[in-house]
Every structure is written in C-alpha cells, then in structure tokens.
Amino acid sequence: MSQAALINLALLLLFALQHSIMARPFFKQRFRARNPRRTYVLATFAALALIWRFWQPMPDVLWLFDGATALGLYAIWTFGLQLILFGALAINWRELLGIAEPGPPAFVTPFLYTIVRHPIYLGAILVLWSTPRMTQGRLLFAAAMTLYILIGIQFEERDLERTFGEIYRVYKRRVPMLIPSWRR
After folding, report:
1. What are the residue ranges spanned by the domains of the chain?
2. Within the chain, which residues score under 50 in pLDDT?
C-alpha cells in the first residue's frame, strides 16, 4: 500500500473515531460542554478540515465516463445532494448543525423518512459514488465513507431502539434502511 493511501486512511480513521465517539451516549453523558451539539459539529468540521488539508493525491483514474453516462451520473449526484438537503430540512436542521440545542427526543417520520429510514445517508452514498471520473483517491474516500456510514447506521439504530423502544422496532420492520421498496 502506498504512503499516500496510508496517510489518507489515517485521516479517515481520525474522522471516524472523532465522529463516532462523540456521537455515543456515554460520551455525551460525560462531556459537559455549554453546547455539546455545537462542540460535536465543530469537532466534525475540524476533522473534515484536516482531511481536506492533508489528503494525499492518488490521481490514477479508474474510470472515466462522458456523454450520456456522465450526465446520468451527474443527475444521480444531484438527486443525492437533494436527499441530503431535504432529509436535513425534514428533521430539525438547526439542531443537526449545532445551531440549536436538541429538545426532548420525539419520534417523527417526515415524508422522506417513510420511504427510507436514512435518506441523508442514502444521499451521501449517492454523492460519493456517482462521479464520471473516479480516481484511486476518490475511490478510497468513497469506499471508506460508505463503510463508515453502514457501520454508523448500526450504532445509530441501536441508540434509537434504546430511546424509542417498540415504536422504532416497528418502524424498522415497515421502512427499509437505505434502498426504497414500494412493496412494504
């Protein structure tokens, strides 16, 4: 494995550890900040800034599409970005960004959340993979972040089951995690 790949993996691991540990209930209970959500969001932006600053180029192109295929991939990318945006707007986006402190937990399922349980994550996966030009570096980033999302969903859903109990378990049976299904 190249030195660039090792550095990039270390940066992604730093992000994953920061983002995951600070999101866990045990950390939230022990960490007493004035605005813990804002602290979490700022730490996440700091970790992402480190990735942006120290990411090592891995420029070899693995696939390159043009014409109608490229336009189709851009359309999927745009759709993914819209899922992220509308998924965040459907829940409390101010809380999500750390602008407002979370209120008491309430179980709600706005429209997108009746189609898939995690529309923001689905949108992120679409954005990560729908590129007409995939380099080794982008593939590493997309694969690592997709794996992180899939693992993170498991932890998040476990926390949601602890918080909401049977209502969340019923929701899990009714609504698919990431891939919409019209048969349910």
Report:
1. 3-174
2. none
